[in-house]
Amino acid sequence: MTTRRVFSGIQPTADSFHLGNYLGAVRQWVDLQASRDAIYCVVDLHAITVPYDPEQLRRRTRVAAAQLFAAGLDPDRCILFVQSQVPEHTELNWVLGCLTGFGEANRMTQFKDKSSKGGADQASVGLFTYPVLQAADILLYQADEVPVGEDQRQHLELSRNLAQRYNHRFGPTFTVPAPYILPAVSKITDLQDPTSKMSKSSSAPAGIIDLLDEPAAIRRKINRAVTDADSVVRADDEAKPGVTNLLRIFSALSGDPIDEIAARYGDGGYGGFKKDLGELVVETFTPIRERTHQYLADPDALDAMLADGARRARVIAGETMAAVRDRCGFPAHP
User: Fold this and answer.
1) Is 197 tagged catalytic?
2) Which residues contact 46 (CB under 8 A, 6 or more apart)?
């Protein structure tokens, strides 16, 4: 039986991944190494769709890669590389862009959400066509499954549509990818505004737990997380969104069912519950933070690991693009 292939990417747009990134993506990536042919990418090309600082991007790309290795991605069990080091991504992006309808791209809800902040007239063409590049990222590696958050489901559907459209027009070329979403961790919300997703772009610092936070900061943020007045630990998304979010985090990190955790703390107040959750997060993140700093202390070695990942990725990407060029009617590369 052929091992199924997964592909996923993450942006280097912050100085640290946060708890939502870890539970919703990174930890899944680590687990999938054991059962899948796994290919992962730091998507720095996606990070330049908005104004940015080049040196900051270069640094954050290294920090992102270091965190991924520190969290458990193993170069012997997966491929991890930086998107801009594999030029086939942008080549396939152009081909797929020529198969994407303007109206189809215009219906992508994330563009509407992001462009609404600064006005559509100020948004870049890159931001508008972001989902097409995302489709190229996925289809380039013939991925069977894509571990994504719920907010990316629409973009993945575009990838599926473009794969099917290309295959119909030019002959069987691309694998049609399926989403790989774990519902239990698909919605980690802001600690200060539990009705909103935990997000670097919209959450206040107190609402986010960073993977590289010091233990004291983690404990403080958990302790100050918004709850409610009745002091009963139970799950109820409507009446108790803050407590439910903390229960979801506790369950995801401990492996214990939410109902069991709620029964353990019951009506004893939130103090002990928050204290134990804070320690659980610290125990989970401290070794990752320490290993991240070790990787960053030797940038040459880290860059060599990423270069090797890019070389391995280009072997697969090159095979796909050779077939695409031939079927599109382009001359063979000299």
Assistant:
1) yes
2) 9, 11, 83, 130, 133, 134
Q: What is the pTM of this model?
A: 0.93
Instruction: List Cβ neighbours of 277 (8 Å cut-off, separation of 6 or more).
Output: 222, 246, 249, 250
Q: Which of 112, 187, 197, 274 is catalytic?
A: 197
187 is an active site residue = no
pLDDT in tens, 152-197: 777 789 999 999 999 999 999 999 999 887 666 667 899 999 988 8
Residue 178, SS3?
strand
Provide the pLDDT for residue 185. Answer: 67
pLDDT band at 112 (very low <50, low <70, confident <90, very high): low
Q: Does the CA dihedral 209-241-146-74 come out positive or negative? A: positive
User: Known catalytic residue: 240?
Assistant: no
How large is the C-alpha radius of gyration of the chain? 21
> Nearest 5°: CA angle at 316, between 314 and 321?
85
Q: Which two tokens stand for residue 288?
A: 């990752």
Q: Which of 114, 187, 221, 240 is catalytic?
A: 114
Residue count of the chain, please give it: 334
Tell me how far apart the alpha carbons of residues 114 and 131 are, in angstroms, rounded to a whole number: 13
Q: Identify the residue whose tokens are 């972001």.
A: 130
pLDDT score for 117: 60
Please name the amino acid found at residue 53: D
